[in-house]
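Subject: complex prediction, re-run

Hi both,

The earlier run crashed halfway through, so I resubmitted it with identical inputs.
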Amino acid sequence: MNTQATPAPPAPAPPAENCCKVTGLTKAYRTGRGAKAKTVLANSDISLEIRRGEVFGLLGPNGAGKSTLVRQLTGLLRPDRGRIEVLGHDIVRHPDRASRLLAYLGQESTALDELTVALAVETTARLRGLSRPAAAAERDAVLAELALEPLAHRPLAKLSGGQRRLACFATTLVGERPLLVLDEPTTGMDPVARRAVWAAVDRRRAASGTTVLLVTHNVIEAETVLDRVAVVDEGRVIACDTPGGLKALVDGDVRLDLVWREEPPLHLPLVAALAPRAAVNGRRWTVRSSPDEARDLVAQITGGPAFAALDDFSLATPSLEDVYLLLGGRHEGLVK
Amino acid sequence: MTTAVLPAPQARLFPALGAVYRAQLSRARVARIPLLFVATFQSLGIMVMMRGVVTTGSADAEAAQDVVAGSTVLVVAFVALNLLAQYFGRLRATGGLDHYATLPVPAASVVLGTAAAYASFTVPGTVVTAAVGCALFQLSWVHLWVLALVVPLSGAALSGIGAACGLLANRQEIATLLGQLGMSAALLLGVLPPSHMPTVIRWVRDLLPSTYGVEALARTFATHPDWTAVALDLAVCAAVGVLSLALAAWAYRRAATRA
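This time it finished cleanly. Structure:
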């Protein structure tokens, strides 16, 4: 058994210690063959720091490079350039240490699909080095904590998407690790399961100062659970701050959503004037404006003939999606 | 700078191997039982078919022994080689290997635990096939205890090859194809007596690890088996098993740390 750690440096600890420090991380892929071969930068010169005990998010649309970054942090993928330090250990040089420092929830469950929930959790605990009685005790505790007991003896493959995701999340909690790396953990979950996930995370943060790295493209989730967030687009980090700090960048603007019953009444001058400014998504128009103008627009639309054609409308303060678009994000892949 | 946190200990080889074995074995209840029936019925079918051309009694004793031994080891080839290649091919293609690769376990524990479970799946099928074969061709049951050596040793050799095929193939379809080809070779070259085959085909037959399992079993149907030759055949299976499982463990490490 190897329980040796890298010796700690003698320097005094700063007030908020880093959990992860990523410097100049670059990873390129080659796609195609022969003359069609192209090099695509999945990650380009990414640098970021995650503090101990925080819930840090990577937000970006599909294909932005979030999962590539996470695979490098978990030791699954070797970067072309750059440094990754996790809890004081160089993961580029010692990728095998990642599994002893962190628990990873990937997007796939094929390794566990044919196991029952109880056995999947217990086996994972055993493979994290726990003895048989300890693994069984942790299995029972985690299944109770996540209210998975009624499903304990059903194979993962026979569960719904959200239930299966919750069972996979349970496997990351056994054999406690100081860092949890969760790649879209709540996909397909109902609100009850989602609350169970975040309650379990909060308990570990309070009890042991667990750090969480969360990959998501869900804006609402990002705004509600994250302490800090890095916005990733086309392999680069385009912003990194608290959700509040990022939203302050677009302060002053609000978003007006108009949902038309059928076709928008473009014969009305007010609606025709609004059309060029609206981002159209099916029957939904989204217009960004100052709060005063937005109030005025709502009054005119709801007080005039356009109201008859309107199915729904909402006025909202800016979200992280607005920040993403303001910062130059080029994809509309974020989920609200 | 940050204070280094002491990493959790690595899982040890044998407890981890045992945990993987137990988990894999439990999968049989969910997904493997229909496939085990297919493996056994295939071998029983071949024996019934061959019964039409091979007579019982001393006239065709060698042929009868090869048919029963070949059909029995075919169950091992079907499950340990073909199904295991497909399992690891699917795990690699769908990203399922990430689960094991982010746990602190020795590569050998995952490969050996899975291979041992697949070899265990073959036990009921081989026993049924050998027993039915002995009845069908009027062969002696006396030395069938040798299955206790033939199944694990040829299981090790074939599951190592199956795992390596599944883990080395860069596409899931290639893994399936390699598994099928391996099993077909064991089927086509294993169930007929070598003395009926042209020299070149016999050389190819000698290159197949399953051949040595078939020969070891076939020899024990004799009234006075040549135990030295049986031991030599089983030693070849064991040696191929060690090499192929080492190759599979290497292939696992390579597959687990690639994009």
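The interface with chain A takes residues 1-12, 15-16, 18-20, 22-23, 26-27, 30-31, 90-91, 94-105, 256-259 of chain B (CB under 8 Å).

- K.
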